[in-house]
Amino acid sequence: MISSTLFQQRESRSAACHGLLAGLAMAIALSLGQGAAMATDGSPQLAQRQGQMIVVPDVDAMRGRRLFVMKGCVSCHRVKDVGGKAAPALDAPEGSTSVNLLDFAARMWRGASAMQDLQSLELGYQIELTGNEIGDLAAFASDPAAQEGFSNDEVPDLLKDWFIDEVYWDEGEWPETDEWQFPQMKDGQ
Known about the structure:
The protein is mainly α.
């Protein structure tokens, strides 16, 4: 029974990592396509850079707003003082006019092990996200207009009971480097 449970946890963690890696790969691909533009018809845009086709997803901040609640991100993260306190708040910077998918994916990557542990403990499963969903969440986290009016009314009562009011990460922001995990790697060494 225990080995079966451990196997299921490993499989679930592996699936979550694959979703996160897919989003990270998408963000890396986006960073390579400096001049890539979004399609106006809502379809992914293909751009060519040095022989590589780069898919630029059609991200949607309002879809990200819905995903923020539906996927349970709101259990640990806050937006406009709505949500849990276990993880960094995802309030958009005032005046923000762009979304950096690579930076968002990198921030998720740095917090991946903590997110997976909290999801397993608090939700009983690990949230799976597609690359497009990560893009939509990144758009929501960087769009003040999409966050305007976000309130507890958008969160189902059952999910409000799952808000984690204890600060799990008390440094304010996920670390920007791996120094906390690998202190010997300071200054890129």
